[in-house]
Write a structure and sequence with these properties.
CATH superfamily of the largest domain: Sulfite Reductase Hemoprotein, domain 1
Largest sheet: 5 strands, mixed
Helix content: 25-40%
CATH topology of the largest domain: Sulfite Reductase Hemoprotein, domain 1
Bound molecules: iron/sulfur cluster
Shape: globular
Structural class: alpha+beta
CATH class of the largest domain: Alpha Beta
Number of strands: 13
Number of helices: 10
CATH architecture of the largest domain: 2-Layer Sandwich
Strand order of the largest sheet: 5-6-7-10-13
Radius of gyration: 23 Å
């Protein structure tokens, strides 16, 4: 059996850089950050070359869309990092910090209601990078999804954003058709003709936008796109489905600012070792919603980030 020579301190240090010990060996898996799961062919080529040059020739995908190169000897870690840096790639994604941002392929998906790669890349730069040195009470996961189909499970992340397309009914223009195109198209069965008029139940409608263009008389418009935000989801040793903020955002800037407020709230109110779901439960969801709607958290940003 191989003799392990790496001290626990060194192992911890390189874990902070994104190198996870390959159990029972002195080798490590280097976790390469893909921003949001989208890399260029050139970057893919660089990772493959690095896997052959420094690792055991194998790469694996993680649940958070990072790519791990296995079998890198401890003393080649820096060389590996320098090699992939040539393609603009870095390692990381561990610790009580913002974890790699994940995104579904909403940008190209036929159901996508928002440009998920664009939004998740902005989230990556402003928060994964921008808050990279900020120690949080525990890890914090952010996911961006293009529609309520939830392929990327934003509601099971500490914070999730989902694309929306809001139906708007002009009741006066509705003719109460025997076979209503909207009712037929609605996968949620939220739309129904009742007493000669279409009614959309807001407690069932998930703003999927599948009813767009389905009314025969233009009584329904679906011009407004938006974002729904989930808070406090988690999936692991303990599980929780995130709760939805009642406000549907229609402005990307507001979404980004609310993500920042959520991070500041977690940083200032969370107890060490506590996941965001637990912080929210302790404070109360309604109170959290109020705090996120106001400007105080952003006004206190410097003070919150300066705190130990
Ligand atoms: S969540 Fe919607 S937009 Fe994203 S991949 Fe799934 S179906 Fe497509
Ligand atoms: S198709 Fe349009 S006009 Fe006809 S019932 Fe449905 S919403 Fe009303
Ligand atoms: S947005 Fe989706 S759930 Fe809502 S009424 Fe239209 S099809 Fe149904």
């Amino acid at each position: 059996m191989a003799t392990l020579t790496i001290s626990p301190e060194e192992e911890k240090r390189v874990k902070g850089l994104g190198f996870l010990s390959n159990k029972g060996t002195d080798n490590f898996s280097g976790r390469v950050i893909t921003v949001n799961g989208k890399i260029t062919a050139q970057q893919m080529k660089c990772i493959s070359e690095a896997a052959e040059l420094f690792g055991n020739g194998v790469v694996t995908m993680t649940a958070r869309l990072t790519i791990e190169v296995q079998g890198i000897p401890f003393d080649r870690i820096e060389e590996f990092r320098a090699y992939i840096a040539k393609a603009g790639l870095v390692t990381g994604g561990t610790g009580a910090k913002i974890r790699p941002v994940v995104s579904c392929k909403g940008t190209t998906c036929q159901y996508g209601l928002i440009d998920t790669f664009d939004l998740s890349e902005k989230v990556h730069h402003r928060f994964f990078e921008g808050y990279g040195a900020v120690k949080l009470p525990h890890k914090f996961k952010i996911a961006v999804g293009g529609c309520p189909n939830n392929c990327m499970k934003p509601d099971l992340n500490d914070l999730g954003v989902i694309g929306q397309r809001l139906p708007k009914l002009d009741v006066d223009a509705c003719k109460g058709c025997k076979k209503c195109g909207v009712e037929l198209a609605c996968p949620m069965k939220a739309a129904k003709v009742v007493d000669g008029k279409l009614v959309i139940d807001p407690s069932i409608c998930n703003n999927c936008g599948r009813c767009a263009g389905k009314c025969y008389f233009n009584a329904l418009s679906n011009e407004q796109y938006g974002y729904k935000m989930y808070l406090g989801g988690r999936w692991g040793k303990k599980t929780a489905v995130g709760r939805t903020l009642s406000h549907i955002f229609t402005d990307e800037k507001e979404v980004m600012d609310t993500i920042e407020k959520a991070l500041l709230l977690y940083k200032s109110e969370g107890k060490p070792g506590e996941r965001f779901a637990e912080t929210i439960d302790r404070i109360g969801f309604e109170k959290v919603e109020q705090m996120l709607a106001g400007d105080e958290l952003l006004a206190r940003k410097e003070e919150i980030l300066a705190a130990e």
